[in-house]
From TrEMBL, chain A:
Entry's localization field: Cell membrane
Keyword check for Transmembrane: yes
Protein name: Leucine/isoleucine/valine transporter permease subunit
Membrane topology: Multi-pass membrane protein
Organism: Moorella mulderi DSM 14980
Keywords: Cell membrane, Membrane, Transmembrane, Transmembrane helix
Superkingdom assignment: Bacteria
InterPro entries, alphabetized: ABC_transp_permease, LivM-like
Transmembrane segments: 36-55, 62-81, 87-107, 153-171, 201-224, 236-265, 271-288
UniProt entry tagged with the keyword Transmembrane helix: yes
Molecular function GO terms recorded: branched-chain amino acid transmembrane transporter activity
Cellular component aspect of the GO annotation: plasma membrane
TrEMBL record, chain B:
Presence of the UniProt keyword Nucleotide-binding in the record: yes
One BP annotation, GO: D-alanine transmembrane transport
Domain ABC transporter span(s) in chain numbering: 4-252
PANTHER family on file: AMINO ACID ABC TRANSPORTER ATP-BINDING PROTEIN, CONSERVED COMPONENT OF ABC TRANSPORTER FOR NATURAL AMINO ACIDS-RELATED
PROSITE patterns: ABC_TRANSPORTER_2 (PS50893)
Protein's gene: lptB
Entry EC no(s): 3.6.3.-
Organism (species): Moorella mulderi DSM 14980
Name this protein carries in UniProt: Lipopolysaccharide export system ATP-binding protein LptB
Lineage, opening ranks: Bacteria, Bacillati, Bacillota, Clostridia, Neomoorellales
Automatic annotation (TrEMBL), chain C:
This protein's name: High-affinity branched-chain amino acid transport system permease protein LivH
Species the sequence originates in: Moorella mulderi DSM 14980
Membrane topology summary: Multi-pass membrane protein
UniProt GO MF annotations: L-isoleucine transmembrane transporter activity; L-leucine transmembrane transporter activity; L-phenylalanine transmembrane transporter activity; L-valine transmembrane transporter activity
GO biological process per UniProt: D-alanine transmembrane transport; L-alanine transport; L-isoleucine import across plasma membrane
Pfam families: BPD_transp_2
Regions annotated as coiled coil: none
Highest taxon listed in the record's lineage: Bacteria
Family from the record: Belongs to the binding-protein-dependent transport system permease family. LivHM subfamily.
Location (main, coarse): membrane
Subcellular location: Cell membrane
Transmembrane segments: 12-32, 39-57, 96-115, 121-138, 145-164, 194-216, 228-252, 272-290
Annotated GO CC locations: plasma membrane
């Protein structure tokens, strides 16, 4: 790794945030309710950033992200709860299984375009949920209980930073540009020597991998998972964050995931009214800002740090 | 040995023979024109050569190997690049990124190198950047390198598309109506550019064009297509005087200069 | 064999309802290429309008049908004007998100106003008797309700075919769905045509909602979610944007679902339906009746 001034600043910022929250938590300033939402912010950031890779950057409309999350959640929970494996092993296994699911789904369905792909991926998500509903080993419709609570701030933060770092580094390379080229014009991309099938499947696999991590973190924080947690509404939720933040903007996804999670938490006491307000907000914001908060732009440190004369990438370094 | 040879190249859509029994032969370094009335099947031949369509019948031999059944990206990697009649740039990306994407398959570093930012990533990216900017300089597009491609003036978009095709480092370049929508001055400059890149990049070029001043001016040999079939082949002066061509295509405008702003 | 035929009879009524909902999806998709996720919830609103009409205004069921269709049509047009029209040139995803927003609004607004209780239409609203049937000497049963559902659906489809093919509004709809810009140049009011499409689709959804309420004997604020999604699947199976596709897809899905429940397990029904969807799309990427449109290069 090469450290430019900008990278060092980002690194310092990331470490500072970690210790700040760690200290606040140790000092007992963060309430139990706030902690839950903090965890949800982190998990949703992982989900939104990974879905943005598929939808926003590669241009493949996928509505099955909750399915990949479910795979990660269940596989990791089986490993820790039933097989007594350590948490890191469980996270990795959950993520890898989700990635394999991504490839299995990606390979055949990527012949489909646009809305057909959307409904096929939605269907796959529902198939995964339906399977979980029917397998007694993982509790059927009642779900799995008694999963050890292993997710803490350190794990969450580590995984979140890892997700963002890997995806941003991927996007700012020739491989990431290949994905963006597919979004912009698939035929031209293919005539420029890009193996479009390979990159579409790769985007699916990577997106699913990180959704699997999010699922593992979720399962080991709430120590209870049910098929009902992973309905297509959950996939919609993630898509809303991605579109709201801006398709093709990683920082947009991060901001939107955090904002939407916090808005949801703030309206908690309003019961059903909360969802009504949420729905109205969603409509109003999209009508007035259809490109999302950030569009395809990134919030970068470039504004404060002089550039090294490098070209502008499609995502912030 | 010919660089590109098609034998009995045929494709039918439903019952319609869009291209029938076409035999083309391009020698290394040639600049060949492909002309014909609208709907004669010119672009379809390009689509066959680049793997967008699969021929119903016939053979395409490039550099001694058959291209039939290969995917477009594999054909590009074998050394054929093209431009499109209706410009297909990556509109929302910068001019520079348009070029960098075409260098993609020449880049040597893998995904893990990118994710972990290993030295080979930095070397690879530096090489891509240097080559891309060199190409932009040649095409006088350097001032626009950070602009979105879709915001470029039309003529510049056409030039960028040619530059992008060259970035894939082809042996054979297919240009689909490169002068469409250009004024006479721009067309003249384009002719100079095409001649120059042919020398500079050691290219063989096959081009579709409606602007007769361009075709007659720079092509060494011309194929004339009508209803999917080759009706004439030869140097410009022969084509100009060929009865069948005049009948099928040029009509009364045999004076060498076609009407301005032919259809795009 | 008897079980098989019986499942077909049961599947036909469920399939009718799916087909009615799928028609609305497909009409809207055909004209503005939007997956109107709120369509399933319009169905719920339609079911409730009829419920209140029958229970509180003591309306006759047929009058309730009409009022519910009108009410839902107005709602559909309203939704289009507020949530989709401003986004017509904003790409594909922004209106998809507002559609999800409208869907959430109707579901949760419904829960807030109507509460979570499950209601049902008053008994005796439609007298449903068992009809003994015999096909090739095999004894089967159908209810008059099942026949009624089928009859209403077929009547609605005939009306729709008439509207689409023989009225000015229908011709305008076809023109707009073929090429909105050319239609505009031909003097067609595209905005109004889109509104008419939403009104028609929503009126169909209202009928489907009431029939669904009668069929399952329950209505609930979230009743539209699953049938809505299934009907969308049906529209895709048939070839989205195609009116005959929605009919074929709806009936096919209804029959397939009852077969799976009848022969196998109702718990496996939903995942298998989605599996079928994916298999069909893999073989025919644009649905059973769809043409494979590849992009012109």
């Amino acid at each position: 790794m090469r450290f430019s001034k900008k990278n060092l600043l980002s690194l310092a910022g990331a470490i500072l945030i970690y210790f700040l929250v760690y200290w606040l938590q140790a000092a007992g300033v963060i309430s139990a309710f706030q902690e839950i939402n903090l965890m949800m912010v982190g998990i949703n950031i992982i989900l939104a950033v990974s879905l943005n890779l598929i939808v926003g950057f590669t241009g493949q409309l996928a509505l099955g992200h909750a399915g990949f999350m479910a795979v990660g959640a269940y596989v990791s929970a089986i490993l820790t709860t039933n097989l007594g494996q350590p948490f890191p092993v469980a996270i990795l296994a959950g993520a890898c299984t989700a990635a394999v699911a991504g490839i299995i789904i990606g390979l055949p369905t990527l012949r489909l375009r646009g809305d057909y792909l959307a409904i096929a991926t939605l269907g796959f998500g529902e198939i995964i949920r339906g399977a979980a509903n029917n397998i007694n080993y993982i509790g059927g419709a009642a779900g799995m209980i008694g999963i050890p609570q292993l997710t803490n701030w350190t794990w969450l933060y580590l995984m979140m930073v890892l997700t963002i770092l890997v995806i941003v580094n991927f996007l700012n390379s020739t491989h990431g540009r290949a994905c963006v080229a597919i979004r912009e014009n698939e035929i031209a991309a293919e005539t420029m020597g890009i193996n479009t099938t390979y990159y579409k499947v790769l985007a699916f696999a990577m997106g699913a991998f990180f959704a699997g991590i999010a699922g593992a973190l979720y399962a080991h924080y709430f120590y209870l998972i049910q098929p009902a947690t992973f309905t297509f509404f959950r996939s919609f939720d993630i898509l809303v964050m991605v579109v709201f933040g801006g398709l093709g903007s990683i920082t947009g996804s991060i901001i939107a995931a955090a904002a939407i999670t916090i808005i949801n938490a703030a309206l908690q006491d309003l019961a059903v009214l909360r969802m009504v307000i949420y729905a109205v907000l969603l409509i109003v914001i999209m009508v007035f800002r259809p490109q999302g908060l950030m569009g395809t732009r990134e919030f970068t440190l470039d504004r404060w740090v002089p550039k090294r004369g490098e070209a502008s990438g499609s995502a912030g370094n | 040995m010919a660089l590109l040879e098609t034998r009995d190249l045929t494709i039918s859509f439903g019952g319609l023979m869009a291209v029938a029994n076409v035999d083309l032969c391009l020698q290394q370094g040639e600049l060949v024109g492909l002309i014909g009335p609208n709907g004669a099947g010119k672009t379809t031949i390009f689509n066959l050569l680049t793997g967008v369509y699969r021929p119903t019948r016939g053979e395409i031999i490039f550099n001694g190997r058959s291209l039939v059944g290969l995917k477009p990206y594999q054909i590009t990697q074998r050394g054929i690049a093209r431009t499109f009649q209706n410009i297909r740039l990556f509109g929302n990306l910068s001019v520079l990124d348009n070029i960098r994407i075409a260098y993609h398959w020449h880049s040597r570093y893998g995904i893990l190198n990118a994710i972990f930012r290993l030295p080979s990533f930095h070397q690879g990216e530096a090489a891509i950047l240097a080559r891309s900017q060199e190409l932009l300089r040649i095409f006088k597009l350097e001032p626009y390198q950070y602009e979105k491609a879709k915001n470029l003036p039309y003529g510049e978009q056409r030039r960028l598309e040619i530059a992008r095709a060259l970035a894939a480092r082809p042996k054979l370049l297919l240009l689909d109506e490169p002068a469409a929508g250009m004024n006479p001055q721009e067309t003249k400059e384009l002719m100079t550019l095409i001649n120059w890149i042919r020398q500079e990049f050691d290219l063989t070029i096959l081009l579709i064009e409606h602007d007769m001043s361009l075709v007659m001016g720079i092509c060494e040999r011309i194929y004339v297509l009508d209803y999917g079939q080759v009706i004439a082949e030869g140097p410009p002066e022969d084509i100009r005087n060929n009865e069948r061509v005049i009948e099928a295509y040029l009509g009364r405008e045999v004076n060498g200069v076609a009407p301005q702003g032919g259809k795009s | 064999m008897a079980v098989f035929l019986q499942q077909i009879i049961n599947g036909l009524s469920l399939g009718s309802i799916y087909a009615l909902i799928a028609l609305g999806y497909t009409m809207v998709y055909g004209i503005i290429q939007l997956i109107n996720f709120a369509h399933g919830d319009i169905l719920m609103v339609g079911a409730y309008i009829a419920f209140f009409g029958v229970v509180y205004l003591k309306l006759n069921i047929w009058l309730a049908f009409i009022i519910s269709m009108i009410g839902s049509a107005i709602l559909g047009v309203l939704i289009e004007r507020v949530a989709y029209k401003p986004l017509r040139n904003a790409g594909r995803l922004a209106p998809l998100i507002t559609a999800i927003g409208v869907s959430l609004f109707l579901e949760n607004g419904g829960l807030m106003v109507l509460g979570t209780e499950i209601r049902s239409y008053p008994a005796g609203l439609i007298t449903s008797a068992q009809l003994p049937l015999a096909i090739f000497g095999i004894k089967l049963t159908a209810t008059t309700l099942q026949l009624l559902i089928l009859a209403i659906t077929i009547a609605m489809m005939i009306i729709l075919q008439y509207i689409v093919h023989y009225t000015w509004a229908g011709k305008a709809m076809r023109a707009v769905s073929y090429d909105p810009d050319a239609a505009r140049l031909m003097g067609i009011n595209v905005d109004n045509t889109i509104s008419v499409t939403f009104a028609l689709g929503s009126a169909f959804a209202a009928v489907a909602g009431i029939l669904l309420g009668l069929y399952y004997n329950t209505i609930h604020p979230l009743m539209g979610i699953m049938p809505g999604l299934k009907a969308f699947v049906a529209a895709v199976i048939g070839g989205i944007g195609l009116i005959p596709g929605a009919m074929v897809g709806g009936f096919a899905l209804g029959i397939f679902e009852t077969m799976v429940s009848g022969y196998w397990s109702s718990k496996l029904r939903d995942p298998i339906v989605f599996l079928l969807l994916i298999l069909i799309l893999l073989v025919k990427p644009s649905g059973l009746l769809g043409k494979n449109n590849t992009e012109k290069v």
